[in-house]
Amino acid sequence: MTVVQVAKSKPSNTTSCSDESGHPRPTGQDQYTISEVVAFTGLSAHTLRWYERIGLMPHVDRSHTGQRRFTNRDLDWLGFVGKLRLTGMPVADMVRYAELVRSGDHTFPDRQALLESTRLDVLQRIAELQDTLTVLDFKISTYACPTVQDPAPRTPAVRHPAVQERTGA
Known about the structure:
The chain is mainly alpha-helical.
């Protein structure tokens, strides 16, 4: 399947719109301190605070002492943000997406357009990586099978005597 065919296809491995089950956490609780979120997500406390400061994280509740209290919904959001980061989406676009989510359901078309654009970028990167992988596989095969002709010779080419006679070289 070519990149164009994949781009025109519908996204695969998606759940139905009615799947809102979320991901229960190991302890089954729904209140987490920043240190628990750090341990669970692998993100630093600094990153979590920065996400909140730039508007990438929705409002995080606070305890009566002012400590952040994250919920399962926050953890699900952080998981999604992590996937967006892996796509190479710029932080500004992630913040824009978060703003659209907070603005309400009327922003569905804008959110969809942003995600579809990101999907096309990912497909392009996959195609580039696939081409790179093909080159690497070929190069590896030259070391595994010395009879395969390497297009980049390591020593100067020796001309055949008949070629030398015709060219005068």
